[in-house]
Amino acid sequence: MAGTDHNKPQLTGGPAIVLVEPQLGENIGTAARAMLNCGLDDLRLVRPRDGWPNPKAVNAASGADSVLGKARLYPDLRAAIADLRHVYAATARDRYMVKRAVIPRLAAAEMRGYLAADEPCGVVFGPERTGLVNDDIALADTVLTVPLNPGFSSLNLAQAVLIVGYEWFIAREEPAAEFLHIGHSRPANKDELVRFFDHFEEALVDSGFIRHPDKRPSLFRNLRNFFQRASPTEQELRTLHGVVTSFMGPRAKPGRDRGESE
Amino acid sequence: MAGTDHNKPQLTGGPAIVLVEPQLGENIGTAARAMLNCGLDDLRLVRPRDGWPNPKAVNAASGADSVLGKARLYPDLRAAIADLRHVYAATARDRYMVKRAVIPRLAAAEMRGYLAADEPCGVVFGPERTGLVNDDIALADTVLTVPLNPGFSSLNLAQAVLIVGYEWFIAREEPAAEFLHIGHSRPANKDELVRFFDHFEEALVDSGFIRHPDKRPSLFRNLRNFFQRASPTEQELRTLHGVVTSFMGPRAKPGRDRGESE
Hints:
The longest helix of chain A has 17 residues, at 190-206. Chain A contains 11 helices and 7 strands. Chain A has helices spanning 25-37, 55-60, 65-70, 77-80, 104-116, 134-137, 157-170, 190-206, 216-230, 234-248, 254-261; strands at residues 16-20, 43-46, 72-74, 86-90, 100-102, 121-125, 142-144. At the A-B interface, helix 1 and helix 7 of A face helix 1 and helix 7 of B.
């Protein structure tokens, strides 16, 4: 990285920035500007409220049109992060989840290491007023929290993106951390992980393990957070799929059992 | 610093944030919000374009009214920094001055050290579109530049304040650097320094050293930058005043000489 050419953008690719249900086009634009300030250009939008493209985003981007032009639309967070191996969820609040949390400086160093090892990663930001819902946070490996005045810590969307991007940019000259993966497998990506969640959770429902549907969402979130923390490899997920299939295999589903017996 | 009380602001005082000729009230408000995010509350305004107080600033501050309420107005930068001993000038551009420059992370560590030693300090930001003029930069010890994408490095005012404040906030748990001052004097504050500049420059004009008035501004800036770099003590400035007075003392002023001889 030259780092001294003042005539053209030094885009590095860098981590994906995923905005979940952004409300105002202006905020998408100012977030894109903050991204380009920091050499980031992989913008992913999940269900922007006012549709896409959005002329208000262009006006607010102050010249960061290249980022907006490359932005990709997704129907849900799961699709937006399918190709990523490491996902951070930006949130200011403590959600009382059992979940690893880091500050942006550590996240930046980790992401430099991931990308140096060709492991795609990204940071997910929630809607302006409400932030990420717990189900979205459960899809992330790690919570990312900006340490600020505890009594006044609320940042707007572009400012949160800027702090994360700034730390990413400034970490560029530090040596990439080494990440060793043992064995012949590789870390699973999020698509593989969520496919396992689907299989596992469907099996749990079918098995009759969860009798009260009201309890499912929080139980599933807790299980997802647990499996996220283990950072499974692709090989391990295949094994886990086999375990679930094996458990469910020969017997008829409980629901059908009841149906047939009545 | 407790750092864990989520119910009230943890204001630390911290460095002064000086906004020179801010144009839009909104930007003063968002800058105040960024300050409070980072535990800063010493806001100083030099000739805000639309007067003060400004209701648009309050609207944009999103609750950081306490910072706006304490903000102080000044007629010029010199007055705004009179009580400070260490001043940073935030600017993205290279002004071709012989001047020390630092990134926000180093500035934050330095300011933690200064304040731990009871040496007031501050960061000066220029008007939104044009930035600081060279004469204002010449009043600062050090240039502060946010390292960003060289091809797209322009930040808005609140974002620049946020990055500086964020680094200040995050440096809070690092040990304060030690700053040793030798002898019985103390570092001069900016008021003392600028009084010396006035004396010195008046003497230069009176002495006939600068025959072409057009050349004065840049020469004076260069001299100011030179004396800033030396970080004079209060005792040294008194000595320098004496030197200037001694040089100029007994003889009549050249202008008067010419007047009398004609």
